[in-house]
Amino acid sequence: MLQVAVIGAGVFGRNHIRLYRELPGVHLAAIVDPAVHFEDTPTFSTVEALLASGLHIDCASVCVPTSAHAQVASQLLQAGIDCLIEKPFAASLAEAEQVLNLAEQHGRIVQIGHLERFNPAVTATLPILTRPMFFESHRLSIFTPRSLDVDVVLDLMIHDLDVVLTMVNSPVTEVRAVGLPVLSPKVDIANVRLEFATGCVANFTASRVSTERVRKLRFFQPHQYVSLDFARQDLLVIDVADAAAAAAAMASSPLQHPSTGLALRKLPVENGEPLKLEIESFLASVQTRQQPRVTGQQGKAALELALQINQMIAQHASRAGLK
């Protein structure tokens, strides 16, 4: 039975705690948080105290604020503990590189918590990818005081950056971005345009000051439009078929428009809790020593792009006289 620890028992850390308590083959052996105490689980105020206790820990979820990711993960890795690090990977590329080097030195697993990669709608999309050429992403959230240690790009948009980087699998060649602080000192709303070496273009909008919650990704590829709803875990595909294919498709679906040659279909999606799927995948990597689905290098790539976007936002603000 794997012995696990959760470092940081805030809003998201408590979800990790809940799932580790529910999953078979896992024992929640320790929680580290200076502000809370759990009667049914050994609780420590610091990682140092946990390591000094002599408790055996196989792996841990790092759910502390981003500024402490590298420090906490480094301590755990040096103690031989595999890490699931919440996104964003770290506060800087140098810190991310430090963690990756330690993981390699100590032969440890590092998985980055880009949980939308485990969203069943994303999983169902990957097999139908051909050559995506245009993405439109919207991730809007109502304002909360959570995660105000980072801006909206590192807080929300980074989910979609990671998903699109995975789907396009091509270097980014151009970044254009604009963003504004609204209710916090950091950027709360941002719009970004990326171009990739393949010619694919992706537009992203992220806001944490919206009046509604929206988590959608749409993209076009040759002869096909795909609409993905992260929250509802829905996947809609519209095929633009030739006449013979359109006729065959019309025979099997009532949602046809024969005059336009468009064939609408909902792909089957096996619903599930993305965080649970993410943690199960992490635990499987710990047990098998296989590379995790979201590697440290992929987490670093998403972080690098997010930081580049923030640089472009700062440059735009300076040109526009917003600073």
Topology:
Elements: E1 2-7, H1 11-22, E2 26-32, E3 43-44, H2 47-52, E4 59-62, H3 69-78, E5 82-86, H4 93-106, E6 110-113, H5 120-125, E7 134-140, H6 152-168, E8 172-180, E9 189-196, E10 201-207, E11 214-221, E12 224-229, E13 234-240, H7 243-250, E14 256-257, E15 262-266, H8 274-288, H9 296-319
Parallel strand pairs: 1-2, 1-4, 2-3, 4-5, 5-6, 7-10
Antiparallel strand pairs: 7-11, 8-9, 9-10, 11-12, 12-13, 13-15, 14-15
Helix pairs in contact: 3-4, 4-9, 6-9
Structure, described:
The structure is a single chain. The relative contact order is 0.15. Strand 4, helix 3 (69-78) and strand 5 form a beta-alpha-beta unit. Helix 4 runs antiparallel to helix 9. This protein has 9 helices and 15 strands. With 323 residues, the chain is α/β, with parallel strands linked by helices. The chain is globular, with a radius of gyration of 21 Å. The chain has 2 domains: 2-108, Rossmann fold; 117-233 and 307-315, 2-Layer Sandwich (Dihydrodipicolinate Reductase, domain 2), CATH 3.30.360. It starts with a strand and ends with a helix.
**In sequence order, what are the helices and strands, one letter per element?**
EHEEHEHEHEHEHEEEEEEHEEHH
Number of strands: 15
Tell me which CATH architecture of the largest domain applies here.
Answer: 2-Layer Sandwich
Helix content: 25-40%
Indicate the multimeric state.
single chain
Brief overview, please?
The chain has nine helices and 15 strands.
Considering the chains and any ligands shown, give keywords for the structure.
9 helices, six-stranded parallel sheet, Rossmann fold, globular, 15 strands, Dihydrodipicolinate Reductase, domain 2, 323 residues, nine-stranded mixed sheet, 2 domains, alpha/beta
